[in-house]
Amino acid sequence: MNESEVPVKAGESYDVWINTVGEKGDGIARVKGFVLFVPNVQTGDYVRIRVTKVLQKVGFAEVVQQLEKPDRVERPRKKFESMTMEELHKEEEPSQEFENSEDFGEELDEE
Question: What are the structural domains of the chain?
Answer without folding.
Answer: 3-90 (2.40.50.140)
